[in-house]
Amino acid sequence: MNKRFVLAMVIALFTLSSAVFASNRKAGHVILIGLDGWGSYSVEKADMPHVKKLMQEGAYTLKKRSVLPSSSAVNWASMFMGAGPELHGYTDWGSKTPELPSRVVTENNIFPTIFGLLRKADPKAEIGCLYEWDGIKYLVDTLSLNYYEQSPDYTKNPTALCDMACRYIKDKKPVLAAVCFDNPDHVGHQDGHNTEAYYAKLNELDAYIGKIIAAMKDAGIYDDSVIIVTSDHGGIDKGHGGKSMMEMETPFIIAGKNIRKSGLFEESMMQFDCASTIAALFGLQQPQVWIGRPMSQVFR
């Protein structure tokens, strides 16, 4: 077969797939903000005006369930990987590599993530992840990211991650960015869940969310964006990892371009549905090994 003809066919197929990808996108940008250890039980009582405005302007559930155990790495992995620990293999609170063999691995030697999925579909996309807890970097497929960075010690520099995220958004206008705070989990362990200190930290984190939203507006991407605010797990007393609803139920709040202003939705949602929902926002076909379902009822 003529080499020029083969090359022309490859270019045509790539152009067609790119056009289909672009036409199926609900938004040009998705910013995911994760608050580690934020239990749904706290939402009604919490003084979080920016979060509650997003709830009013978009859609939300307070009954998204964590996978078990209701701990950090296993749930961040599920959030990004569209599947549970039985498939991706990360099973402990601090997993850095799978304790079980991942059912599928990509060319980057990691279970398929939403970051890798977007990278394949859009090689030029700006994709980033900023975080406080070092464990996040083992779960996001760093080879698919343009930028990833841990903020300085947040006990000494509590505003550092917010400042980093605002700079990144204004400078790079990412197509997909995850900003993962390690609170209120730290306060939950130190002072306890459902305490005055816990709610004070939620109010502080809400102010950071407000600054990130302002940065999106300054960058000129807000009107073409979807913002998601969610969590890996909740907690009870000074811990988590068990099977109580205070530990397992977490908020999922979504607002922005092509998101219905529908408020509370009752459909069941699991942690791994987060990745599927983001994939659907970008018009991506999820891998067969993913078991997540997009919350497409919230889309216009």
Can you describe this structure?
The protein has one domain (26-298): Alkaline Phosphatase, subunit A, CATH 3.40.720.10. The protein is built from ten helices and eight strands. It has helices at residues 3-24, 49-57, 72-81, 85-88, 114-121, 160-172, 185-190, 196-218, 245-248, 273-281, and strands spanning 29-35, 59-65, 127-131, 147-150, 176-181, 225-230, 249-256, 263-264. α6 (160-172) runs parallel beside α8 (196-218). GO terms for molecular function: hydrolase activity.
> Could you say what the CATH topology is called?
Alkaline Phosphatase, subunit A
The strand line-up of the biggest sheet is: 4-3-5-1-6-7-2-8
Q: Structural class, from helix and strand content?
A: alpha/beta
Instruction: State the order of secondary-structure elements, H for helix, E for strand.
Output: HEHEHHHEEHEHHEHEEH
The DSSP helix count reads: 10
Radius of gyration: 19 Å
Give the tags.
300 residues, globular, Alkaline Phosphatase, subunit A, single chain, alpha/beta
Question: What does the secondary structure layout of this molecule look like, with pairings?
Answer:
Elements: H1 3-24, E1 29-35, H2 49-57, E2 59-65, H3 72-81, H4 85-88, H5 114-121, E3 127-131, E4 147-150, H6 160-172, E5 176-181, H7 185-190, H8 196-218, E6 225-230, H9 245-248, E7 249-256, E8 263-264, H10 273-281
Parallel strand pairs: 1-5, 1-6, 2-8, 3-4, 3-5
Antiparallel strand pairs: 2-7, 6-7
Keywords: Signal
Signal peptide: 1-22
Organism: Macellibacteroides fermentans
